Amino acid sequence: MELTKSEKKIVRELIEIGLQREFTNGLSKADSILEDWKNQIKDNRESYHLLYKQITQFNKHIARRYDAMTGSRYFYVLAAQFTDNIIMENDLENVPEHIIQALKIIADR
Length: 109
Description:
Layout: H1 5-38, H2 44-66, H3 74-83, H4 97-107
Helix pairs in contact: 1-2, 1-3, 3-4
């Protein structure tokens, strides 16, 4: 979907909100692994491997979604965030209606 300059600005701001939420989710998962380690629920080796796996998989996800993001990909990145419930409907209050409708179609809502 082709976005106007003003639409790109709105969508880019939403993408940044979503990216920050993704970082929060990733850090929370890493923290959970560390908490299990601190509470001796899991041993050092298992905790290390789980943490490494979590960080590397999360990094791959972030890179796939956000690296080399240009204006022509803004809508698709937002659609992915919306589909993954990182961006919610109430976050879309400043988004033009035609973009909201397209997002809902893609997310099957």
